[in-house]
Task: inverse folding
């Protein structure tokens, strides 16, 4: 049975939580701009077709690029997942 929707309470990001959040932001920021392969059954596959994702708050900032699957790779992924 579904429960009534309620917003989460605001988080307290003072003290240690603030420091931890700042460290996490720096860590993630250091890995922006990478290119990621498709992974099917543990096999990493790069394709010539790559889609890029940009930070909507800073459009020139590349978040990352991901190899795009064609129909054959999609079929293979479904077979492996099955």
Result:
């Amino acid at each position: 049975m579904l429960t009534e929707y309620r917003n989460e309470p605001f988080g307290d990001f003072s003290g240690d939580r603030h420091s931890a959040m700042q460290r996490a932001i720096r860590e993630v920021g250091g890995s922006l701009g990478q290119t990621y392969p498709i992974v099917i059954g543990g096999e990493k596959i790069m394709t010539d077709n790559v889609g890029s994702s940009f930070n909507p708050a800073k459009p020139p900032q590349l978040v990352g690029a991901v190899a795009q699957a064609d129909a054959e790779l999609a079929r293979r992924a479904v077979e492996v997942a099955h």
The mean pLDDT is 93. The helical segments are 16-29, 71-81. The CA atoms of residues 19 and 25 lie 10 Å apart.
